[in-house]
Specification:
The structure is a single chain. The protein is mostly beta strands. The chain contains no helices and eleven strands. The strands form two sheets. Strands 2, 4, 5, 6, 9, 10 and 11 form a seven-stranded mixed sheet that branches. Strands 1-3-8-7 form a four-stranded antiparallel sheet, with no helix packed on it. A hairpin with a 4-residue loop joins β7 and β8.
Length: about 110
């Protein structure tokens, strides 16, 4: 059974940074397509960033140049480094495997 557990969310001021982590059991990240999604208040859940088995990445236009997705194959952990955070980045962030398996989510709030 695949389980994904996110961590690293919290409250940060505009312009600040956070790093989210996604630890997994039952799946090998480097062999799969892994992604970060987010769902803001009253909004649908949208893709933020994705990393495929080759290591290639893609990003939503709204986060390009500010967010970086990466993975540590030895630790089987995925990360989302978020810099220059804006209030509109406020959302619950979810880790996803192959578009099918979801973590429980971690809240990110950007506010002064």
């Amino acid at each position: 059974q695949v389980q994904l557990v996110e961590s690293g969310g919290g409250l940060v001021q505009p312009g600040g940074s956070l790093r989210l982590s996604c630890a997994a059991s039952g799946i090998i990240f480097r062999l799969n397509t892994m992604g970060w999604y987010r769902q803001g208040p009253g909004k649908q859940r949208d893709l933020v960033a994705r990393i495929i088995s080759t290591g290639n990445t893609n990003y939503a236009d709204s986060v390009k140049g500010r967010f970086t997705i990466s993975r540590d194959d030895d630790k089987n952990t995925m990360y989302l480094q978020m810099n220059s955070l804006k209030p509109e980045d406020t959302a619950v962030y979810y880790c996803n495997a192959n578009g099918m398996v979801w973590g429980q989510g971690t809240q990110v709030t950007v506010s002064s």
